[in-house]
Amino acid sequence: MADTRTPDSTRRSERSRRAIYDAALALVGEVGYQRTTIEGIAARAGVGKQTIYRWWPSKAAVLLEAFVDLNQQAADALGETAQAIPDTGDLAADLRRVLRATVDELVDPKYDIPTRALTAEGIVDAELGSRYVDTLLRPALQLYVDRLVAAREAGHVRADVDPETALELFTGPLTHRWLLRTAPLTHAYADRLVDYALNGLAPR
Amino acid sequence: MADTRTPDSTRRSERSRRAIYDAALALVGEVGYQRTTIEGIAARAGVGKQTIYRWWPSKAAVLLEAFVDLNQQAADALGETAQAIPDTGDLAADLRRVLRATVDELVDPKYDIPTRALTAEGIVDAELGSRYVDTLLRPALQLYVDRLVAAREAGHVRADVDPETALELFTGPLTHRWLLRTAPLTHAYADRLVDYALNGLAPR
Amino acid sequence: MADTRTPDSTRRSERSRRAIYDAALALVGEVGYQRTTIEGIAARAGVGKQTIYRWWPSKAAVLLEAFVDLNQQAADALGETAQAIPDTGDLAADLRRVLRATVDELVDPKYDIPTRALTAEGIVDAELGSRYVDTLLRPALQLYVDRLVAAREAGHVRADVDPETALELFTGPLTHRWLLRTAPLTHAYADRLVDYALNGLAPR
Amino acid sequence: MADTRTPDSTRRSERSRRAIYDAALALVGEVGYQRTTIEGIAARAGVGKQTIYRWWPSKAAVLLEAFVDLNQQAADALGETAQAIPDTGDLAADLRRVLRATVDELVDPKYDIPTRALTAEGIVDAELGSRYVDTLLRPALQLYVDRLVAAREAGHVRADVDPETALELFTGPLTHRWLLRTAPLTHAYADRLVDYALNGLAPR
DNA sequence: GCGTAAACGAGACGGTACGTCTAGTCTTTTC
DNA sequence: GAAAAGACTAGACGTACCGTCTCGTTTACGC
């Protein structure tokens, strides 16, 4: 039977935790997600397999935490407001800037490969997916909500707009192209999205 | 080394092919994609493993073809034009109708589970992904292109609109919510998408 | 590396020692030797694993000491001479009596299972084997030596007989049948052994 | 669940079987029985673990068969009668010769180590023990029975002697010293055993 | 209609990784 | 400072599948 005793997290080895994060991210980057194995992570981290199984339920969960940790570190390095979408008063310009940056990130293999892996895993595994959304995706989307609310108050956006839906006009298509590879992701595409979404497809 | 001789498809057993499709779809529905194995499909189909390896390169490829076959059958049952997006002259109403139908399909577990599995696999496996897009997704998206081109000619849509980008304002957000489960998929959501995309977020 | 510091035995917990003996014997009786683990003994004794590793080099060593302790207690309960082979003047009768008693003991599962385990372990592990022989077996065999020497002095046994070898004519076959289960261990067998060994196989 | 299907022995790979025997015997000789693992045997034999698990229930069973096979080969090399105890008419001399040969064998590490391991395992595991006795030990003991019966018919042994018991006067003590290492195994000891057993301990 | 060659069902094979178990060590806290 | 508790590295366990490779057994085409 499985070990049903919950381990005592106060006695957890910080050293091992870090080594596992590092090994997991390195391996996914080097050989891809499918060929990254728990045995491989353990060996690379100089850790017993049981130490992984003790603290994580699956390979995907390890990678997710490793990613969250990475983001945390990056966020800590920057100031708090540094990650917010800028508000220059020109909504279109601000969105173009942030969408272009997102395009750049999604195109960079360093982010592309592990993020794809996590996303794909979350698509099939609902439990993991919800943790992924809550810890990584939702905070990123919230930045759009904040900016759109500000724009609405400034009268740059229709008063009846639901920001949760509105933001998906930008991130939805971008994610669609990125994940499904239906067409190349370019800055021009990002700009066009902002144009269409803000001004609509119908003639004015 | 692999058997480099190309098998003679004229001598292929139609019976086995059908049995493999059925077994693959049934197993994915019953135990999920991850726990569906080629051995399991072979056993369920009453077929030797080699018969699968002879004709398909991977589990995902089997499932993809099984899905294509399923769609083919459904399409054959309907008339040819039956799957096109209707053109009543009211673009918004036509889009609402088709998006609502899509929502209904994505919410139905019968389609949801295997489609998720295929999509997730295609996200990670580029080769499979491109076949998935070409055989299943692209034809479906083309229907939007056709309808949007017609709308553009009728002056119901801006003359400068790129239909390939424009259609993603509808399918992108829908796919986003479906795959990532960020929020429930409803008819109201579909309607709102049509409103935002056609009229834009900015005040007129 | 192992903790080379010799622990201070004066501070040793008598309570733990007893609990470990009891747990070890109980477990071997219940689940057999192979499936008795040091972890299991520690858990059952309510003792940390390190407490076992601190004082014993192996599972077999624990069991051996537990057994020695058990014998000690039994011996203390009886008088000192009580365990000697009786000397009624009739060597054959005395040997039959003691061999029959040995048969009874070897057939009793209470002794059979742990003694088998220890013996088997000692056969493979020379170090343990020698401790087993010295602490448990040798004292028992010495009783035969004593009785045979007395018989020799009384002229009931050839003057040139080496008691160390002679005693094995009794214990050797008995042990052989017991360990290898080549044939059932019975009182009749014990009697026959005494007859053959004392009188020889050759016709007189 | 375990694979309950019985494998088809007609399709068994003779090559793998031989390689497994060789690897098992080599490893036991090199690192001892306890530190010989199924993984190690598989790796050394260049064989998948499952191939071992498919055909044998345990490490001990592999070793037993390897040993039986070894004996078979040795027996096939010699003539049929070559392994019988010689009958020169001088029972004592014949027994001395065979016991001395046995001593030599038991002292040779090549036989000592794996035989010890198998014997010890058979002592604890009754099922394996009975297979060990039936396939390896019993045939060897039968040779004594045959010789003793011949001696009885020739009047060199008491008419009332049970050969099954009598033979244990020789093999029992020898096995006892060998397994328990109570004293060194020498030719002199073998000779003394023959003397005592044939002539008895009591004065004539 | 008969021979032959390819596809077939079956499943053994060498492997890899799984998730579990235990060994023996190390660390922290309690008595 | 011994002991309880238990996390740690290490690695074998037995299982599940992988993809390849024979085996006979159909099956269907060309002679």
Automatic annotation (TrEMBL), chains A, B, C, D:
Chain segments annotated as coiled-coil in the UniProt record = none
SUPFAM superfamilies named in the record? Homeodomain-like, Tetracyclin repressor-like, C-terminal domain
Per UniProt, which keywords does this protein have? DNA-binding, Transcription, Transcription regulation
Which residues does UniProt assign to DNA binding? 37-56
Is DNA-binding there in the keyword field?
Answer: yes
Domain HTH tetR-type span(s) in chain numbering: 14-74
Q: Which Pfam families match?
A: TetR_C_11, TetR_N
Q: Could you give a GO molecular-function term held by this entry?
A: DNA-binding transcription factor activity
Alphabetized InterPro entries for the sequence: Homeodomain-like_sf, HTH-type_TetR-like_transc_reg, HTH_TetR, Tet_transcr_reg_TetR-rel_C_sf, TetR_C
Source superkingdom: Bacteria
For this protein, the record's PROSITE patterns field holds: HTH_TETR_2 (PS50977)
PANTHER family assigned: HTH-TYPE TRANSCRIPTIONAL REGULATOR RUTR, TETR-FAMILY TRANSCRIPTIONAL REGULATOR
Query: What name does this protein carry?
Result: AcrR family transcriptional regulator
